[in-house]
Design brief:
Elements lengths: L1 E4 L2 E5 L8 H17 L3 H8 L3 E2 L7 E3 L5 E3 L6 H11 L7 H11 L4 H10 L6 H9 L5 E2 L11 E6 L4 E6 L2 E6 H5 L3 H11 L1
Parallel strand pairs: 1-7, 3-6
Antiparallel strand pairs: 1-2, 4-5, 7-8, 8-9
Helix pairs in contact: 1-8
Amino acid sequence: MKVVSNGEVKIEQYCGGDGYPSGRGYEIMLFVRDLYNSKRVKELKQYLGTTELVDITDEPCVFVNGAGCQADEAHWEGYATIVAYIREHSYTFASDFENIEDMLTAGLISESDAQYYMAMSSKTGNQVLDYILKHKPQKMKFFFDQNSEDSVESEYTINLDKQTVEYDWYGEEYVKRFRELSKMSDEQIYKMMKKIE
């Protein structure tokens, strides 16, 4: 998933898990529709003007087979805490974003640990957008996995300049305008995305 703003790729996040149009694609479409309808596109563009891309190799982290960020605990002690919490609460079927929110509320992790996990874990995927829109951290670094494009079946680009979502499913390209999505219900968007598969 990519987010383009002011002519630059500001986020390039690998989305592990359900990359199907009716999975991650559907979630991305709902995010974009709600962003547009709540008149927050400009707000997100302004925020992204303060962010920077960081090559994952520059961070104390090793990206392993799309399974998430396996961090060296000597560099980042919070990783083990977050992973243990998510495993313990997996029966609730909460998303990583929801679990991170719960941990922040309970004071179990710092904002720094939350930001790092949301950006570095492939399991976060498009939920990193929910996180940054809610918290707008002053310094939020994103990474891009240079090998991911060769191993994914779908790719989604949210273009805040053109106000479009461009997506590719096994070589077939599609474009949807924010304005079109704004008039669609959850069910209509789901059916639209499911039809592509």
